[in-house]
Amino acid sequence: MSERLQKVMAHAGIASRRASEQLIETGHVRVNGKVVTTLGTKVTAADRIEVDHKPIQKEAPVYFLFNKPRGVITSATDEKHRKTVLDYFQHQVSERIYPVGRLDYDTTGALLVTNDGELDYLLTHPKHEIPKTYLAKVTGIPNATDFHRLETGVKLDANHRSAPAEVRLAKKMGNDNQNALVELTIHEGRNHEVKKMLQAVGHPVEKLKRTAFAGLKLADLEPGQWRSLNKREVRDLWELAKGEQQNEVK
């Protein structure tokens, strides 16, 4: 049975599928001793695959939920030598893991970390509407009109309008109610989406925390802490990801 090279690499925990495609295109991958740069190349279990001259070996998939602190980079490495999410897993996890999607440097909260490239691909693909819930501290108190605009979609720039969101006022804050906590669930994965949406309705974000991703909730995880997912949670993630993929086909 043959499979696409980038899919095999992702399953082996080398990198996400998109990152594996980049490795192929830039000449880092050899199949049976020959450099392969063509995406979609098919390989079988009998083929020898090397990345930077190191043969790949399939790792058992692992899945973790991490509460990302403020001021931590959502990346495997950082050229500026800032702290990354993987620093919290050093000497405790031997698999080649990486974060699923991204959170801004100053955004905290729920982040999935895994070595399962196929699941990473399904959960982060722009066409897959995976739910993400955020709690935002904003300037001012949004009113009913603001919430209606967020629920129906707001224009963010000349080429992009946000998709409908689920939103509610969680709490009024301050002696004169000068701030509010707003809970917002979106199904898109664009950069700075929540911040842009709330800015568009006149309530800039002061602090932002993702409280849930793809049905996984932080619960009692403190910033910087992580836990392994149980079998049911992993199964639910796959069902959600595959369900969204099937909806896309329909």
TrEMBL record:
Pfam families: PseudoU_synth_2, S4. Its EC number is 5.4.99.-. It comes from Fructilactobacillus hinvesii. The keyword Isomerase applies. Keywords: Isomerase, RNA-binding. PROSITE patterns: PSI_RSU (PS01149), S4 (PS50889). Transmembrane segments: none annotated. Belongs to the pseudouridine synthase RsuA family. Residues 3-61 form the RNA-binding S4 domain. It comes from the Bacteria. This is Pseudouridine synthase. InterPro entries: PsdUridine_s_RsuA/RluB/E/F_cat, PsdUridine_synth_cat_dom_sf, PsdUridine_synth_RsuA/RluA, PsdUridine_synth_RsuA/RluB/E/F, PsdUridine_synth_RsuA/RluB_CS, RsuA_PseudoU_synthase, S4_RNA-bd, S4_RNA-bd_sf.
